[in-house]
Amino acid sequence: MDSFLEEEEEAAAAAAATKKAAVGSALLPALRLPSLPPYLYQPVSSHEYKLNFKKSKEVCLSYIQDAMLRKQWKRAAEFLTFYIESLEKDFSTEYMGPSEMIWRIGTEILCHHSHNSMKEFNSFIEQMKTLGVKRYLKVCLEHAFHLLCNGQIDEAYQNLLLAESWRFGEQTAIQNKEMKLIQAYRGLLDYYSWSKQKNILLQHGQDGLEDLSVEQEMHSCFRKAAMNLKEIIKIPGVWDLFVKCYVDLLEFYGDHNEAREVLNEYAYNSKFPANPNAHVYLYQFLKRHGESKKSLLSALKILHDIVPSHELMIDFNIMLQKSKKRKKRRLGLEVIFAVLDYAGWKENVKAWSCLARQVKQIVISEKHLDWIKQEWNPRKDWWPAFHFSRYLAKRNWQENESLSYEKALVAGILLGKDCKYFKYVSRRGCKAQVKRFRVLKKFLNKHNPVYLRISGLSDSSVQP
Question: What's the whole-model pTM score?
Answer without folding.
Answer: 0.77
